[in-house]
Amino acid sequence: MEVTIGMTDNSKEQVRYRRAQNLLIIVGKGMLMLALWNGIKTAGILILRKNQAMATLKSIPEIKEADLSDPMLYKIFIAIVVAYMAVIIGARLFAGICAIRTGMGKRHLLYIPLTFTLITYSMSEFWDALTYMVDGLDSSAGAVEQFTYTPAPVIMVIEFTSMIMMIELLVAAITVLWYRVKNRNSNKPKNPQVEARDMELTQESGITGE
User: Fold this and answer.
1) Is residue 5 part of a domain?
2) Under DSSP, is residue 67 helix (H, G, I), strand (E, B) or coil?
3) Tens digits of per-residue pLDDT, 5-47?
C-alpha cells in the first residue's frame, strides 16, 4: 500500500520528506551491498578455511572428547558458519529491502527496531576489533582475524561504515514515519456524530441570526 503526503509540493516539510525517502532508498541499497559482502565472505570461509576450522573445532575439549570423524566435524563447521551468517545476512537484506520500499511509498515498521539491533551488533564488532588491535586481547575480533584472514583494521572500517549507514537509515525512517503519522492525523475525518452536532449548531445559529 502506497502512502501519499498531503503537503504543498515546494513546502519545507515536503522537501524534508522527499529527502528522507531518497536517503532510505540509497542507504537501503548500501545495506544490500553489505549483505552481499557478508555472503561472499561466508563462501570464502567455507571454501578456503576448512583446515583452520577443523583444527579449531578439534581444540574444543567437548568435541575432542567426543572423538568425531573429520566429515562430521566439517558438517558442524558448515552448520555453525551458515547459521550465524544467515541471521546477519537475512537481517541486513530485510532491513535494506524494507528501507527501499518505504522510500518508494510503502508501509513498513518492523525494520526500524531491527536496524537498531543491527547498529548494536556493529558497535559490538567494532569495539572488539579496536580492543584486539590496541591491546591484543583475546576477543571475538581476534578469532575472526585468525579464522578469515580479515585484519582487525578492516573489520573496524567495515563495521564503522555499517554503523554510519544504519544510523542514517534509522533517522530517515523515523523522519518518514513522523511525517506520515502527522499527515494522517491532519487528514483524519471527524466522527460522524461530531459532524452532525456541528451541523445542527451551525443551522441553529443561522436560524437565530435571521
Assistant:
1) no
2) coil
3) 444 566 788 888 889 999 999 999 999 998 888 788 777 767 7
Residue 6 is assigned to a structural domain of this protein: no
**Cβ contacts of 123 within 8 Å, gap of 6 or more:** 159, 163
3-class DSSP assignment, residue 107: coil
pTM of the model: 0.69
Hunting for cell 591484543 — which residue is that? 136
DSSP state of 191: P
Is 4 a domain residue?
Answer: no
Decide if 153 contacts 132 (C-beta within 8 A): no
If one counts the domains in the chain, the total is 1
For the chain, give the longest Cα–Cα distance. 101
User: Within a 13 Å sphere around the CA of 96, how many CA atoms are in the beta-carbon half?
Assistant: 19
Provide the domain limits for residue 131.
12-209
Whether the Cβ atoms of residue 191 and residue 33 lie closer than 8 Å to each other: no
CA 1 from centroid of its chain's CA atoms: 21
Check: CB of residue 159 under 8 Å from CB of residue 125.
yes
Distance of alpha carbon 182 from alpha carbon 169, whole angstroms: 20
Backbone φ/ψ region at 30: left (φ over 0), alpha (ψ -120 to 50), beta: alpha
Nearest to 100 by CA among 188, 157, 169: 169
Structural domain includes residue 3: no
DSSP 110: T
The larger pLDDT score, comparing residue 69 to residue 197, is at 69
